[in-house]
Amino acid sequence: MTFERIMVDPALMGGVQTVRGLRIPVAAVLSIVADGMSTNEIRQDLPDLTPNDIAEAMRYAAEAMREHTLPLHPSA
């Protein structure tokens, strides 16, 4: 899977993944989505983002989770 909108530049934002090289980290987009904001609300706060940017940030996160797992408490 390739991602055309997700960029990494060591000289930008400390090398974290950003959307289209903007100063908007993928993690920030994901946090906003997780907080329940709609695409329209996100675009009001971050007008440089497109609906496709937001969708690709979410796909990127889903793919990252397939590649890596985080420690979780065992289920009961």
From TrEMBL:
InterPro entries cross-referenced by the UniProt entry: DUF433, Homeodomain-like_sf, WH-like_DNA-bd_sf
Pfam families membership: DUF433
Name of protein: DUF433 domain-containing protein
Annotated source species: Pseudonocardia nematodicida
